[in-house]
Design a protein that fits this description.
This protein is an all-alpha fold. The protein contains 10 helices and no strands. The longest helix is centred in the N-terminal third of the chain and has 30 residues. Bound molecules: 4-amino-5-hydroxymethyl-2-methylpyrimidine.
Protein backbone atom coordinates (compact mmCIF):
# COMPACT_ATOMS: atom_id res chain seq x y z
CA UNK A 1 0.00 0.00 0.00
CA UNK A 2 1.49 3.33 -1.09
CA UNK A 3 -0.02 5.09 1.92
CA UNK A 4 2.30 3.39 4.42
CA UNK A 5 5.40 5.53 4.94
CA UNK A 6 8.55 3.91 3.57
CA UNK A 7 10.27 3.60 6.98
CA UNK A 8 7.17 1.86 8.36
CA UNK A 9 7.27 -0.65 5.49
CA UNK A 10 10.97 -1.30 6.15
CA UNK A 11 10.47 -1.93 9.86
CA UNK A 12 7.60 -4.34 9.17
CA UNK A 13 9.59 -6.17 6.54
CA UNK A 14 12.76 -6.44 8.64
CA UNK A 15 11.14 -6.80 12.07
CA UNK A 16 13.45 -9.54 13.36
CA UNK A 17 16.61 -7.62 12.59
CA UNK A 18 15.09 -4.39 13.91
CA UNK A 19 14.22 -6.09 17.19
CA UNK A 20 17.67 -7.65 17.28
CA UNK A 21 19.17 -4.16 17.20
CA UNK A 22 16.74 -2.53 19.65
CA UNK A 23 16.23 -5.40 22.14
CA UNK A 24 19.75 -6.77 22.34
CA UNK A 25 20.77 -8.92 25.36
CA UNK A 26 23.14 -6.12 26.46
CA UNK A 27 20.22 -3.66 26.54
CA UNK A 28 18.00 -6.20 28.30
CA UNK A 29 20.73 -6.67 30.91
CA UNK A 30 20.77 -2.91 31.62
CA UNK A 31 17.00 -2.98 31.98
CA UNK A 32 16.96 -5.96 34.34
CA UNK A 33 19.99 -4.80 36.32
CA UNK A 34 22.14 -7.84 35.57
CA UNK A 35 24.55 -5.85 33.36
CA UNK A 36 28.25 -6.56 33.68
CA UNK A 37 29.94 -3.19 34.31
CA UNK A 38 33.04 -4.23 32.42
CA UNK A 39 30.84 -4.58 29.33
CA UNK A 40 29.33 -1.19 29.97
CA UNK A 41 32.79 0.36 30.20
CA UNK A 42 33.84 -1.28 26.97
CA UNK A 43 30.69 0.01 25.28
CA UNK A 44 31.38 3.52 26.65
CA UNK A 45 34.92 3.71 25.26
CA UNK A 46 33.95 2.26 21.88
CA UNK A 47 30.87 4.46 21.54
CA UNK A 48 32.94 7.57 22.19
CA UNK A 49 35.06 6.65 19.16
CA UNK A 50 31.92 5.92 17.15
CA UNK A 51 30.33 9.27 17.99
CA UNK A 52 33.49 11.08 16.90
CA UNK A 53 33.16 9.54 13.44
CA UNK A 54 29.40 10.03 13.43
CA UNK A 55 29.96 13.83 13.49
CA UNK A 56 31.50 14.14 9.98
CA UNK A 57 28.75 11.89 8.61
CA UNK A 58 26.07 14.14 10.14
CA UNK A 59 27.93 17.20 8.81
CA UNK A 60 27.89 15.71 5.30
CA UNK A 61 24.16 15.08 5.66
CA UNK A 62 23.73 18.68 6.74
CA UNK A 63 25.49 19.82 3.55
CA UNK A 64 23.16 17.61 1.49
CA UNK A 65 20.08 18.99 3.25
CA UNK A 66 21.21 22.55 2.57
CA UNK A 67 21.14 21.81 -1.17
CA UNK A 68 17.60 20.46 -1.11
CA UNK A 69 14.88 22.69 -2.41
CA UNK A 70 12.48 23.20 0.41
CA UNK A 71 11.73 25.38 3.40
CA UNK A 72 15.16 24.84 4.96
CA UNK A 73 13.67 23.20 8.05
CA UNK A 74 15.52 19.91 7.46
CA UNK A 75 18.80 21.73 7.78
CA UNK A 76 17.74 23.25 11.08
CA UNK A 77 16.78 19.85 12.50
CA UNK A 78 20.13 18.37 11.47
CA UNK A 79 21.96 21.40 12.86
CA UNK A 80 20.20 20.76 16.17
CA UNK A 81 21.37 17.16 15.94
CA UNK A 82 24.95 18.34 15.52
CA UNK A 83 24.62 20.58 18.56
CA UNK A 84 23.45 17.64 20.65
CA UNK A 85 26.40 15.58 19.42
CA UNK A 86 28.62 18.27 20.87
CA UNK A 87 26.90 17.78 24.25
CA UNK A 88 27.15 14.04 23.77
CA UNK A 89 30.93 14.15 23.33
CA UNK A 90 31.21 16.08 26.58
CA UNK A 91 28.86 13.64 28.27
CA UNK A 92 31.12 10.75 27.20
CA UNK A 93 34.18 12.49 28.65
CA UNK A 94 32.41 13.08 31.92
CA UNK A 95 30.99 9.55 32.10
CA UNK A 96 34.37 8.02 31.21
CA UNK A 97 36.00 9.84 34.09
CA UNK A 98 33.27 8.60 36.49
CA UNK A 99 33.87 5.01 35.38
CA UNK A 100 37.66 5.38 35.19
CA UNK A 101 37.75 4.70 31.46
CA UNK A 102 40.65 6.39 29.69
CA UNK A 103 39.26 7.60 26.36
CA UNK A 104 42.70 8.37 24.95
CA UNK A 105 43.78 4.75 25.29
CA UNK A 106 40.69 3.07 23.82
CA UNK A 107 41.62 0.84 20.90
CA UNK A 108 38.82 0.71 18.32
CA UNK A 109 37.59 -2.85 17.84
CA UNK A 110 36.80 -4.52 14.53
CA UNK A 111 33.02 -4.04 14.61
CA UNK A 112 33.53 -0.37 15.42
CA UNK A 113 36.15 0.18 12.71
CA UNK A 114 33.83 -1.40 10.14
CA UNK A 115 30.88 0.72 11.24
CA UNK A 116 32.97 3.92 11.13
CA UNK A 117 34.24 3.02 7.66
CA UNK A 118 30.67 2.51 6.47
CA UNK A 119 29.81 6.00 7.73
CA UNK A 120 32.87 7.49 6.11
CA UNK A 121 31.86 6.03 2.74
CA UNK A 122 28.46 7.64 3.13
CA UNK A 123 29.96 11.12 3.51
CA UNK A 124 30.65 11.18 -0.26
CA UNK A 125 28.69 13.78 -2.23
CA UNK A 126 27.72 10.91 -4.57
CA UNK A 127 25.52 9.45 -1.84
CA UNK A 128 22.01 10.78 -2.27
CA UNK A 129 20.35 12.81 0.48
CA UNK A 130 17.46 10.30 0.98
CA UNK A 131 20.04 7.57 1.64
CA UNK A 132 21.99 9.73 4.09
CA UNK A 133 18.95 10.97 6.01
CA UNK A 134 17.54 7.42 6.28
CA UNK A 135 20.84 6.22 7.75
CA UNK A 136 20.96 9.16 10.14
CA UNK A 137 17.43 8.39 11.37
CA UNK A 138 18.16 4.65 11.69
CA UNK A 139 21.31 5.22 13.77
CA UNK A 140 19.53 7.54 16.18
CA UNK A 141 16.35 5.49 16.47
CA UNK A 142 18.17 2.29 17.44
CA UNK A 143 19.57 4.01 20.54
CA UNK A 144 16.31 5.82 21.23
CA UNK A 145 14.26 2.60 21.13
CA UNK A 146 16.87 0.60 23.02
CA UNK A 147 17.23 2.98 25.94
CA UNK A 148 13.54 3.92 26.02
CA UNK A 149 12.88 0.19 26.42
CA UNK A 150 15.26 0.13 29.40
CA UNK A 151 13.24 2.92 31.05
CA UNK A 152 9.84 1.22 30.62
CA UNK A 153 7.79 0.34 33.71
CA UNK A 154 9.29 -2.32 35.93
CA UNK A 155 12.95 -1.70 35.12
CA UNK A 156 15.78 -2.47 37.55
CA UNK A 157 18.38 -0.17 35.95
CA UNK A 158 21.45 0.22 38.19
CA UNK A 159 21.54 3.76 39.54
CA UNK A 160 24.90 4.44 37.83
CA UNK A 161 23.33 3.76 34.41
CA UNK A 162 20.12 5.74 34.85
CA UNK A 163 21.67 8.82 33.20
CA UNK A 164 22.80 6.79 30.19
CA UNK A 165 19.30 5.44 29.65
CA UNK A 166 17.79 8.90 30.00
CA UNK A 167 20.30 10.41 27.56
CA UNK A 168 18.78 8.45 24.65
CA UNK A 169 15.50 7.29 26.14
CA UNK A 170 14.10 10.68 27.12
CA UNK A 171 10.97 12.07 25.49
CA UNK A 172 12.79 14.94 23.74
CA UNK A 173 15.13 12.54 22.01
CA UNK A 174 12.06 10.51 21.00
CA UNK A 175 10.47 13.58 19.42
CA UNK A 176 13.72 14.39 17.61
CA UNK A 177 13.85 10.85 16.16
CA UNK A 178 10.24 11.15 15.01
CA UNK A 179 11.12 14.40 13.23
CA UNK A 180 14.09 12.73 11.52
CA UNK A 181 11.79 9.92 10.48
CA UNK A 182 9.27 12.35 8.97
CA UNK A 183 12.05 14.05 7.03
CA UNK A 184 13.31 10.67 5.78
CA UNK A 185 9.83 9.57 4.75
CA UNK A 186 9.16 12.81 2.90
CA UNK A 187 12.46 12.45 0.98
CA UNK A 188 11.89 8.78 0.24
CA UNK A 189 8.41 9.47 -1.06
CA UNK A 190 9.91 11.71 -3.75
CA UNK A 191 12.90 9.47 -4.49
CA UNK A 192 13.36 7.13 -7.46
CA UNK A 193 12.93 3.36 -6.93
CA UNK A 194 16.72 2.98 -7.29
CA UNK A 195 17.43 5.49 -4.55
CA UNK A 196 14.73 4.01 -2.29
CA UNK A 197 16.26 0.60 -2.71
CA UNK A 198 19.78 1.92 -1.95
CA UNK A 199 18.37 3.55 1.18
CA UNK A 200 16.76 0.27 2.26
CA UNK A 201 20.04 -1.60 1.85
CA UNK A 202 21.81 1.10 3.88
CA UNK A 203 19.09 0.89 6.57
CA UNK A 204 19.64 -2.87 6.84
CA UNK A 205 23.39 -2.33 7.08
CA UNK A 206 22.86 0.05 10.00
CA UNK A 207 20.79 -2.58 11.83
CA UNK A 208 23.48 -5.20 11.24
CA UNK A 209 26.27 -2.87 12.39
CA UNK A 210 24.28 -1.99 15.50
CA UNK A 211 23.83 -5.67 16.42
CA UNK A 212 27.56 -6.21 15.88
CA UNK A 213 28.32 -3.17 18.03
CA UNK A 214 26.27 -4.53 20.94
CA UNK A 215 27.87 -7.96 20.45
CA UNK A 216 31.30 -6.36 20.59
CA UNK A 217 30.34 -4.64 23.85
CA UNK A 218 29.58 -7.98 25.50
CA UNK A 219 32.76 -9.48 24.04
CA UNK A 220 31.07 -11.65 21.43
CA UNK A 221 32.58 -10.15 18.32
C1 LIG B 1 26.77 2.61 17.90
N1 LIG B 1 24.73 3.84 17.40
C2 LIG B 1 25.88 3.79 18.08
N2 LIG B 1 26.23 4.76 18.92
C3 LIG B 1 25.43 5.84 19.08
N3 LIG B 1 25.81 6.81 19.95
C4 LIG B 1 24.20 5.93 18.39
C5 LIG B 1 23.90 4.89 17.54
C6 LIG B 1 23.21 7.07 18.53
O1 LIG B 1 23.75 8.30 18.65
Amino acid sequence: DCKIPVTEAWIRKHRLLYDGATRHPFIRSIRDGSVDFSYFKRWLGQDYIFVRSFVPFVASTLVKSSKESGDGLDMEVILGGMASLNDEINWFKNEASKFHVSLTSVVPQKANIKYCRFLENLTSSEVEYPVAISVFWAIEVVYQESFAHCLEEGNLIPEELQGTCERWGNEGFGTYCKTLREIADRCLQKASPEVISKAEVAFLSVLEYEVDFWNMSIGEA
